[in-house]
Design brief:
Length: 121
C-alpha cells in the first residue's frame, strides 16, 4: 500500500476538529478517542497526529519523539481504561488485505470482556 497520505480521511478531519470525537487522551503528538462503532466494552482508537498511513509507515518514518509519545500514550490508555489486570487485544489493519477503512495509522485497543478468536472470516 502506498504511504501517500490523503488529507481528506476521517481521522484527519477529527484531528482538525472538523467532526466531534470522544477523547480519551490527547498529547502533543498523539490522540486517543472512542471508536464510533465499538466492538467490545472498551474500544479505543490511538493515532499519531503525524501523517502516517499504516503501522509500517509509522514504524519506518516516525521520529523518536513521536514514537516515544505514541507508546507512552498507549501505556496510559491501558492503565486508565483498567485493561492491565484482565488483558486486552491490539489490532492495526493495513491496506487492502487488512481491510483498512481509514488511511491514517491507528491502533484498535479492545477489552472489557473475553474477546473472541483472533480472526472470524
Ligand atoms: P479500520 O478498518 O481499521 O480502518 O477501522 C476504522 C475504525 O474507525 C472503525 O472501527 C470505525 C471507526 N470510525 C470511522 N469513522 C469514525 C468517526 O467518525 N469517529 C470515530 N470515533 N470512529 C470512527
Amino acid at each position: 500500500m502506498s504511504h501517500t497520505y490523503d488529507d481528506s480521511n476521517i481521522f484527519a478531519m477529527i484531528l482538525r476538529g472538523e467532526i466531534p470525537k470522544s477523547t480519551v487522551i490527547e498529547t502533543d503528538n498523539s490522540l486517543a478517542f472512542r471508536d464510533i462503532n465499538p466492538q467490545a466494552p472498551v474500544h479505543v482508537l490511538l493515532i499519531p497526529k503525524g501523517k502516517y498511513v499504516t503501522i509500517d509507515d509509522f514504524a519506518a518514518n516516525a521520529s523518536a519523539e513521536e514514537t516515544h509519545d505514541f507508546w507512552a500514550t498507549f501505556a496510559s490508555i491501558i492503565e486508565r481504561e483498567g485493561l492491565r489486570e484482565k488483558g486486552f487485544r491490539v489490532i492495526s489493519n493495513a491496506g487492502d488485505h487488512g481491510l483498512q477503512e481509514v488511511p491514517h495509522f491507528h491502533l484498535h485497543i479492545l477489552g472489557g470482556e473475553v474477546l473472541g478468536p483472533i480472526l472470524a472470516r
